[in-house]
Design brief:
single chain; about 900 residues; alpha+beta; Jelly Rolls; Archaeosine Trna-guanine Transglycosylase, Chain: A, domain 4; 3 domains; eight-stranded mixed sheet; 25 helices; about 35% helix; about 20% strand; elongated; oxidoreductase; EC 1.14.11.53; nucleus
Length: about 900
């Protein structure tokens, strides 16, 4: 085995020295060592040519380390397959530079078997040719282990990594906490404790994989150094890759009848069978098809550690006699390699454009096959993966071949870690105050990518996959992605509304109805919205140098409509993928889960329950879910563009009904005779009661903020909503409540302000105006006025806070001994919540505030509270 794969062997050193001194076939030598210079000045070193004078097996057969091709096999390893290196089990068990302990197969195998017992290895359903094509089960069971947040997309399926850990004081602390919980809680927390125990056991097994990766990293560095020296000796470009790994894909392979047959003709004893057309490869099957690994950092090394359980645990055994050699291949696992230029790498997409992978295969160089013993490792160094393909074959059944575990360590390119996409999403959210076609396009592409390549990829892998990965790491990242998705969907609706309102304004809908009838408040607001939207679009058009209405449509309206149609097509294809018949053959916990995305009316219904909002495990969108409805919206947006160009209101589509302001309910909405909703605790901003005669309103503020406003120390009160316009310039009582949880009212919907409690009216203020904050910088600039520090729970949170409102305090007054309250002001006996922290106050306790324009909630409550004396007069309630 040392002769075959040991990168520092004497044979290879002699070959490297001879390459610089030989005079035979000088032209050929120059040709095989001269690099290719591609476009942009990048140097690409293609594999050396196989010497034509050396014997090689018949076409369709593999070159192996056996007679009569031993010399040819050695030349292939040092020539066209340079960069393929092997360490056997004995070499790996010995310490090396940077690894003082070595790799011990029994420890690795024990961890792998533990992972198998815990159900971590799973059969996946891939879609090799992309959305809309056939799905297929993998022949192997597998799992991904790696750094936190890493993923690996393979054959159309994104695999999510089990985080590896290095010893894990955190896991140990968790386990200690579990034991204490067991002693303290005999009931009610067993499920939680079991989850923590499972997480700790998984941490122990995955840490073994991490230590294996560290050891292989050190050995990779040694092999790269040797390869670099050999290349320099023949004046070839130096190596460019770095020895590092961030994931490990572990495959568990068995030789089952389901594997694809493979025509495996090799060596002298198979030449006759190859000519006769019969396959005496004796049941050779492939568990992994020909491929070059994708999604990797260019020039990075791939290291594969294999261990076998049962079956044939040895590699090439030259001590066998000729009598037993005929059956020596039975029960072995083989790694096969072939030369295929630009299968991967920086030039792959350009060089293979318009051609298939098979067209890149170099037919003059024979493929090779290597059988390695259990506990060994092989390396595809530097650019080897760029110009070679590999596959895994077996020549036995389940009894003779046993089980093969392969731990493949790779270094991924950027964008395969979930944190990269969360950062992109938060960066996009921070730019919501800006507008423009490029920004809108990047937002829509990001939205589609997050939904298609992350959220749907996670949930299609079933409840078993979710159970294994959710709590150990992926719970919080997926919630963050769902939150970003929700905000991008809301941003999509806002952009569509802006484009539609601009088109309506361009068509003259903001000019009034042409009659002397006074417009309603809603009509005035709609008119103002159209006028503002048209001004925004015209300002945008002037900034990006669009010269006419035709360009406005082609640059703003039509591209956005096309992006909506693309997302509709994506969702339609994902719907077909989730219903593919292959899932019927899978266990129930491997079948697709419901994707936690709520659309349109579903969003309002889900929010009404409150649980999803608190948990954050769902994404909410004001847009429709159906691809057909989304396509219809895209068509309507295109019609808005046409109406904008023509200035013709007749071309406008009917109003789209995608707003979530219409909350669905299992029962019809009950309204009173005057049209106001039964729920009196969430009045709209234009509610007539805000301006009713004889009404007094109070604002709840927790300690110490109430005192700061009453004393004038706090000049701006920060809220997440605007002040009802009717309350501007009016006295608002300051209701002081006990300090409690930030953002959560400490009061119920009905107040009792008498009886000596902590809730009381301490003064009043007049709000002169409302200031809207759209950026964190603007919010922080007024810190001395609103007194909200950046680390305060009420502070601006970049990436989360969309906007805030500052209620500017004008006049203010605090009641005290020297300045008593006006008659009845501080003696308010009761109050009822009208909107958020705003209460309508009444002087008598137990009597519901009743403005002149509002009737009682219902007749039953009225009759119950109006107890009459026998003479028919009302009975006054005593306090």
């Amino acid at each position: 085995m040392g002769k075959m794969g040991k990168s520092g062997s004497k044979r290879k050193q002699q070959r490297a020295a001879a390459a610089t001194t030989t005079t035979v076939s000088l032209d050929q030598t120059v040709q095989t060592t001269k690099p290719n210079r591609e476009q942009g000045g990048d140097i690409v070193l293609l594999p050396q040519e196989f010497p034509p004078h050396l014997p090689k097996p018949p076409r369709g057969s593999f070159l192996r380390d056996e007679a009569p091709y031993r010399d040819s096999f050695g030349e292939a390893l040092s020539g066209p397959y340079e960069g393929f290196a092997v360490d056997d089990a004995k070499e790996l068990s010995l310490p090396c530079e940077g690894d003082n302990t070595g790799i011990h197969e029994e420890i690795v195998l024990s961890s792998l078997e533990t992972m198998e017992g815990e159900g971590i290895f799973r059969t996946d359903v891939t879609q090799p040719f992309g959305l809309g094509t056939k799905c297929a089960k993998t022949y192997v069971t597998r799992c991904l282990v790696g750094e936190r947040g890493t993923t690996y997309k393979y054959l159309g399926l994104r695999m999510f990594a089990h985080p590896w850990t290095d010893g894990s004081e955190e896991a140990a602390d968790d386990r200690g906490g579990k034991k204490r919980k067991r002693r303290k809680r005999a009931q009610g927390c067993d499920a939680k404790v079991d989850q923590l125990n499972q997480a700790f056991d998984e941490a122990k097994t995955t840490s073994t994989i991490q230590e294996l990766g560290k050891s292989l990293t050190m050995r990779t560095a040694n092999h790269l150094r040797d390869l670099d020296q050999r290349r320099r000796q023949r004046r070839a470009p130096a190596t460019r890759g770095r020895p590092n790994f961030d994931i490990c894909l572990i495959n568990r392979m068995e030789s089952s009848p389901d594997l694809k047959p493979y025509n495996f003709g090799v060596g002298e004893h198979n030449n006759k069978s190859s000519r006769s057309g019969k396959n005496e490869g004796n049941g050779t099957k492939t568990s992994v098809s020909w491929h070059a690994d994708s999604s990797l950092e260019h020039y990075s090394t791939i290291a594969v550690y294999q261990t076998l359980l049962g079956g044939c645990r040895t590699g090439n055994d030259k001590s066998k006699s000729k009598a037993t050699k005929k059956n020596s291949d039975e029960g072995k696992w083989w790694v096969a390699l072939r030369v295929a230029h630009h299968s991967e790498g920086p030039q792959a997409s350009q060089r293979r454009r318009g051609s298939t992978t098979e067209a890149s295969i170099v037919e003059d160089t024979p493929p090779i096959a290597v059988s390695l013993p259990s506990g060994s490792a092989y390396y595809l160094l530097d650019d080897f993966n760029h110009h070679h393909q590999h596959t895994v074959l077996t020549t036995g059944d389940a009894a003779t071949a046993g089980v093969r575990y392969s731990c493949t360590f790779r270094l991924l390119r950027d964008s395969h870690n979930v944190r990269d996409w969360i950062d992109r999403g938060n960066a996009a959210i921070r730019q919501f105050h800006k507008k423009g076609p490029k920004l809108w396009r990047s937002e829509q592409l990001l939205l589609t990518e997050i939904e298609s390549e992350w959220i749907r990829q996670f949930y299609i892998q079933g409840t078993g996959h979710h159970k294994l990965l959710w709590e150990p790491y992926w719970k919080n990242p997926m919630k963050e992605l769902l939150s970003i998705w929700s905000q991008l969907e809301a941003r999509t609706k806002q952009t569509m509304d802006l484009l539609r309102a601009a088109a309506e304004g361009k068509c003259g809908l903001d000019a009034g109805n042409g009659t002397e009838t006074k417009p309603t408040k809603a009509e005035r607001k709609a008119r103002d919205r159209r006028r503002k939207a048209l001004g925004t679009i015209r300002d945008l058009v002037s900034r990006i140098h669009i010269h006419n209405d035709d360009e406005t449509v082609t640059e703003l309206y039509l591209p956005f409509a096309e992006l909506l149609e693309a997302r509709a097509a994506m969702r339609e294809l994902w719907g077909k993928r989730e219903k593919d018949h292959v899932f019927h053959e899978m266990p129930p916990d491997c079948r697709p889960m419901e994707v936690p995305l709520r659309f349109g009316d579903q969003t309002a219904a889900h929010r009404s329950s409150g649980a999803a909002e608190r948990d954050g495990s769902t994404g909410n969108s004001p847009l429709p879910a159906s691809p057909a409805e989304l396509r219809e919206l895209a068509k309507q947006l295109a019609r808005c563009g046409k109406a904008y160009r023509e200035g013709n209101a007749a071309l406008l589509p009917p109003p789209w009904d995608t707003d979530e302001r219409k909350p669905p309910s299992p029962t019809p909405s009950i309204e009173k005779k005057d049209g106001s909703p039964r729920d009196h605790h969430a009045k709209p901003m234009d509610w007539p009661g805000w301006d009713a005669d004889g009404t007094t309103f109070g604002l709840e503020l927790q300690q110490p903020w109430a005192g700061f406003v009453a004393n004038g120390k706090k000049a701006i009160d920060v809220r997440s909503y605007a002040l009802p316009p009717a309350l501007l310039g009016k006295k608002v009582m300051i209701i002081e409540s006990a300090s409690g949880r930030a953002g959560v009212s400490a009061l119920g919907n009905r107040l009792r302000l008498t009886g000596g409690g902590t809730t009381r009216v301490i003064g009043w203020c007049v709000f002169s105006s409302v200031k809207a904050y759209e950026t964190g910088a603007a919010f922080r600039a007024d810190e001395r006025l609103h007194l909200v520090a950046p680390d305060n729970p009420y502070g601006w949170k970049d990436g989360t806070t969309k906007n805030a409102f500052g209620w500017v305090v004008g006049e203010h007054h605090r009641f005290g001994e020297s300045s008593p309250a006006p008659s009845g002001a501080a003696a308010m006996g009761s109050g009822i919540r009208r909107f958020r922290s705003l209460f309508q106050l009444a002087a008598e306790e137990g009597v519901e505030p009743n403005p002149a324009r509002e009737k009682k909630n219902n007749s039953k409550r009225s009759s119950a509270t109006r107890k009459k004396k026998p003479n028919g007069r009302k009975k006054r309630k005593r306090f």
